[in-house]
Predict the structure.
Amino acid sequence: MQKPKNAFKSFFIEVGELSYFAGRFFKEVFSRPFEFRELLRQCYNIGNKSILLVGVTGFIIGLVLTLQTRPTLEEFGAVSWMPSMVSISIIREIGPVIIALTFAGRIASGIGAELGSMKVTEQIDAMEVSGTNPFKFLVVTRILAATLMLPILVIFGDAVALYGSYIIENTKGDVSFVLYFNKVFKALEFSDIFPATIKTFFFGFAIGLVGCFKGYTCNKGTVGVGMAANSAVVYASMLLFVLDFIAVFVTDIFFEI
């Protein structure tokens, strides 16, 4: 069993290494050569492989949230507030966080396992010998792709979630499509949409950064590949909650939600 003192020491060492890794990313991202083709390939892979999972997740979020909330609103005679309440809840918090967690489970583990396998099989060392910058080619492109793709996936997931909510409202309360979404857009304001969209860029960056860090620094043989994939998901999920708290705190200061 690891002693608490050693556990704290290991934690702070890893935080320092992750910070250095992030600093190296910001240094490399603005230097030539720019790997646009690899970036586009990673954007396609990350977005295309996640779109079905995000769509299903968003649809179920809308269904479950509406089914769970509707009976309570019926008791108070406030069913007409359902579109407003669901849209604000999904756009502000539920959609971005749950979809980001789903994205982390799919992408952070995949990146960690992929780069970890390349590390233990010495493919990264071979790239360095051949004159290629492996950090720029492997890490920078994946972090940028995750940062750019997650906001798009969250917007898609939010839209599917609202459609799922509409289906329940149409079935239970015979609410038309036009009426439902008129209430949705009437309830939403700039202070709901803008902060929720901005924080998804930070979520995507954190997921890509942790996944690449765990895979790129994997050095314990084939066993370390599984450890890298597992710890990438755990660390990314924890970091998402921290970033979400900071985002809500800052939004509360500037927008007075």
Summary: The mean pLDDT is 86. The two ends are 45 Å apart (CA to CA).
